[in-house]
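Page 42, continued from yesterday. The earlier attempt failed because a stray header line got pasted into the input along with the sequence. Redoing it now with the clean sequence only.
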Amino acid sequence: MTQDDVGTRAAGAGAAALSPTTSTVIAGDIGGTSSRVLLARPDGTILAEHTGPGANLRSSGLAALDGLARTIGELLERAAADPAAVRAVALGLSGAGPARVRDIRDAIAERLLPLGITTTNLLVTDDLLTAFLSGGVGDTGLLVLAGTGAVAVRVEDRRPVRRRDGMGWLLGDIGSAVWLGRRTLEVVAADLDDRGPRTSLTEQVGADLGLDLRDGTQPPSPTGDLRQDLIRALDDAVPAGSPSALGRFAPLPARVPDDPVAAGILDAAARTVEDTLAALDLDGTLPVVLAGSVLTSDGPLRERALALIAGQGRRVGTARDGLPGALLLARDLAAGQSA
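This time it went through. Structure tokens are written below.
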């Protein structure tokens, strides 16, 4: 079964009518801030979809899975579906890496059983795998993801075998939205402090924050010191403990690509994609799936990544979420295929 025939939507709005004996599967793309789940027939026909809160295992531990169970319960209720008719469940879950996946699977199974769902065919996997499978390039290849964070994975026969970056915003995540935002603020600070070259990113950041960071006149500087104006504004815009808020400034370099400093930031991010492909696939033959907002949204970084991959003669796919990949796994489970 290929990703190309993963799923089609049932005719009509909302959930399709189900008979009590209709076999179904559940697929889920479970992130830290939101969860998307769907109910489908084993042939891939989508019957209902539902969105709920995320499951942030890092901040809330396994208790975060309580909300996931509620979301799945609401999906079944919305579709008027018989839980006993669910033949397989496949969930791509952020944080479900090899070190924790068994405990996470057991915890999810405990929460699904009271809903009446048999958990014999329950697959819980890292959302990186479901993102890769959503790209439609087959079971082997490379996933290059740059969203809030950044990570790349080499997948062989649906199994991640090598990983690059994903080290977090302090240690890595090069090319991610957080990294782009952080680099943007660093060069603006250097401009204001005469430690670096003048850049139009200073005006861009000022406009975003409602400040005149060049002259301090329109509007007037709140403190009389442009550097302190920036610090004060960022205290509100990027609260302590919320590095993801740095992603707010990620789009700014692409707005002024002719600015040498902005171009330097974009060049560094593009080189990271090139270096990653070379590091994970020396032969340069494996297909590539691009994922994450930085590489799936139109703009210079996506354009450069696509041009690089095409120049190497590789196939390329785009995964805007992991739900198609999770559905593919659920369908294969229901069909008795190994995941």
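Notes: The chain is about 40% helix and 20% strand.
Reminder to self: strip header lines before submitting.
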